[in-house]
Amino acid sequence: MATNGASNGLTFKPNGEGASIPQTDPAVYADFEKKWAGKLPSTEAQWVQRAAEVAEVLAADAAVRDRENKSPRAEVALLKYSGLLKVMGPKKYGGGGHSWSVGYKVIREVAKGDGSLGMLLGYHLLWSTTANVVGTPEQAERVANLITSNNYFVGGAVNPRDSDLTITSEGDEIVFNGVKNFNTGGVISDLTVLEGVYAGTEDHIFALVPTAQPGIQFAYNWNNIGLRLTESGSVKISNVRAPWSDALGWNPQWQKPDPAVLGIPYASLLLPTIQLVFSNFYLGITLGALTFAARYTAKHTRPWPYTPDPNPAATDEFYILAAYGNFYAHARAAEALADSAAADIAALYARYPSADLKARSQLSARERGVLAEAVAAVKVVTTDTGLRVTAGVFETTGARATAAKVGLDRFFRDVRTHTLHDPVAYKNHELGRFVLLDEVPEPTWYT
């Protein structure tokens, strides 16, 4: 039965009752399930190549799927078949065992073919490793086993800006209730990360729960201009329960945050980690736009005839060549900056391993802040470059490239949509204080 939402007037349905919602059929990718079965990549180069193969498959009909806006059940199945969901999972549970430096490259590669799927993969990798940052070592081990061994896809109903999910305690369980205006990938997920405020406090709790339960109800209302296949619509949470032992970083006996886990700078690493996820799928979308546009120009764009010195082909036009050269230079610079920050994050996690609480406690606020500013620089550059390139390629492709059937517009719409997630102006401001005053930012839910 459908249930009505609170003041927003939305209609919510449990996941099982959303079967009537248009969705893609995993059977279309059955051949890839057979092709990749039991053939997990090993080296970094192999993982990036596998991601490139997935991107090529997704790019073939990305414009059509974007217009149809069907729930991407098949595309998430493709990610599962490819093994990409497990690139950072522990090897002992069947994962790739790689660090974020590889995870970010895989996200970027998939986003070249389809920004929505690059975003879904990025959020999945973040939620899959959340327990490593804000959980106890025991919780992190349990979560890694659960997700990697089962090849689960993880969505998230997390939006700390709004106090829209409350948590109460009933014996050995915590109970979630409320509405999240945005959740990412929940409709097509196996597990959902819930986040809310524990009643009577200002403390937040993260916990992973199975998605397929009556208390998780979706509005199926994601119909935005970009990233249309991310299922980022609203979700209603009604009496969803989890054991206190699954409250990440909390002491289940005392029902309070564990200061050795959540009371140290290490716990706030989750924020720069996901901000670099954002930048990498922005960058992937940008590089995908550049490749797509260059192929279109070479094949379809006509030279401008009304000039004293007409060229025989668009690829001979000075202004087109200069524009592509400039786009390429800025994209390469952004890529190098992103790889540098990714190496910094991977090195930091290696220096302070999540399984060692004593090591975690050694991370200083200053070291965490310097990393956050390195990530902020990437966010600024990939936002500026992404918007400039994905809009600018229309000047190098011509008026006919604006046709819906071409699909060039999806790159700009995707970048434009997510770069509004949090104001990039504040990243510029933080960087200004860092450069001029040698100040690192106080950790927030967006820094």
TrEMBL record:
UniProt name for this protein: Acyl-CoA dehydrogenase NM domain-like protein
Alphabetized PANTHER family for the sequence: ACYL-COA DEHYDROGENASE, ISOVALERYL-COA DEHYDROGENASE, MITOCHONDRIAL-RELATED
Gene3D superfamilies: Acyl-CoA dehydrogenase/oxidase, N-terminal domain, Butyryl-CoA Dehydrogenase, subunit A, domain 2, Butyryl-CoA Dehydrogenase, subunit A, domain 3
GO annotation terms (biological process): L-leucine catabolic process
One of the Pfam families matching this protein, by short name: Acyl-CoA_dh_N
Domain of life according to the entry: Eukaryota
Extent of Polar residues compositional bias: 1-10
Residue ranges constituting the Acyl-CoA dehydrogenase C-terminal domain according to the UniProt record: 277-421
Residues annotated as signal peptide: none
UniProt source species: Pseudovirgaria hyperparasitica
Oxidoreductase is among the record's keywords: yes
Database matches in InterPro entries: Acyl-CoA_DH_C, Acyl-CoA_Oxase/DH_mid-dom_sf, AcylCo_DH-like_C, AcylCoA_DH/ox_N, AcylCoA_DH/ox_N_sf, AcylCoA_DH/oxidase_NM_dom_sf
Keywords: Flavoprotein, Oxidoreductase
Region called Disordered, residue ranges: 1-24
Keyword ATP-binding: no
Ranges of residues in domain Acyl-CoA dehydrogenase/oxidase N-terminal: 54-144
Single GO MF annotation: 3-methylbutanoyl-CoA dehydrogenase activity
